[in-house]
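Appendix C: a fully annotated inverse folding record. The material below is reproduced so that readers can follow the format used throughout the book. The structure is listed first as tokens, followed by the designed sequence.
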């Protein structure tokens, strides 16, 4: 496998997770509306020093390391992300999970017409032959196409920028889950369903995807989590996918966040759509007795 493809695969877990997490369904239980902020201070419930929670977007043209971000990093001693991006074995671990099993291929799953549509679209967007990805899980294709939605030559991932800050401050980096955890989530979604979404994108054209991405980015830049949740609701996943991709992961993180926050003041960065809602991280932490306040 050439270096270019390997680098693209490295982007999968910093881009695609957030993009799928933006698909939401309506909450059955009303929760208090959140103030407009991406940064939240966690105190109470046995915490001696505050930790901070930040909603990231994994692809942006508008990254700014604000004063409130700097202050939060200065007040914390370690960085927690969805996965530990500092792991030197990260690429090797990713490669263990990126290929489909049982001899399945993209071409064998799709009809000839749909494969041709996706192949042509993929070549137009990224300049690569879809055959290079034929044995890979649809996630690899989705992530590569997602990177083309930003209207700038080089998008920035908040996760990677936060890693630079942590390294400069000689702070430990930890993950809330492993590569295996994340891949298990996506493997619960049939490849056929994942590919249907890709074919739909190919037939509609990249302009439609860019419009959705731009609208989502406007709400994100306004630090409006409620607005972001609302604007992405009409792109909703099936309820069981929402449960697997977002809600269950949020619940899995809470005991770990509670543990690390009580042990060490921590800056926690996760995809922004993991924060709001009844099953969002903010509400779940509050249910555990923590005070979670917006930082302006």
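Designed amino acids, in order:
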């Amino acid at each position: 496998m050439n270096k270019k493809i390997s680098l693209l695969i490295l982007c999968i877990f910093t881009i695609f997770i957030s993009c799928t997490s933006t698909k939401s369904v309506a909450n059955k239980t009303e929760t208090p509306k959140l103030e407009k902020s991406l940064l939240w201070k966690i105190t109470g419930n046995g915490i001696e020093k505050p930790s901070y929670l930040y909603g990231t977007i994994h692809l942006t043209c508008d990254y700014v390391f604000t004063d409130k971000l700097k202050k939060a990093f200065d007040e914390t001693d370690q960085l927690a992300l969805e996965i530990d991006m500092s792991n030197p074995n990260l690429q090797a671990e990713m490669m263990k999970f990126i290929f489909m099993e049982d001899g399945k291929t993209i071409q064998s799953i799709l009809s000839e017409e749909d494969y041709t549509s996706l192949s042509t679209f993929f070549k137009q967007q990224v300049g690569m032959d879809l055959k290079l990805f034929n044995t890979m899980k649809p996630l690899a294709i989705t992530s590569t196409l997602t990177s083309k939605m930003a209207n700038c030559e080089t998008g920035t991932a908040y996760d990677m920028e936060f890693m630079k800050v942590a390294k400069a401050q000689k702070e430990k980096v930890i993950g809330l889950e492993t590569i295996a955890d994340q891949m298990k989530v996506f493997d619960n979604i049939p490849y056929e369903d994942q590919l249907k979404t890709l074919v739909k994108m190919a037939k509609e054209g990249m302009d439609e995807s860019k419009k959705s991405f731009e609208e989502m980015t406007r709400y994100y830049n306004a630090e409006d989590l409620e607005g972001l949740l609302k604007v992405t609701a009409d792109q909703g996943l099936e309820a069981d996918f929402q449960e697997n991709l977002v809600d269950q992961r949020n619940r899995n993180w809470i005991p770990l966040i509670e543990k690390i926050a009580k042990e060490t003041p921590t800056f926690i960065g996760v995809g922004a759509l993991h924060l709001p809602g009844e099953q969002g991280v903010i509400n779940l932490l509050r249910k555990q007795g923590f005070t979670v306040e917006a930082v302006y």
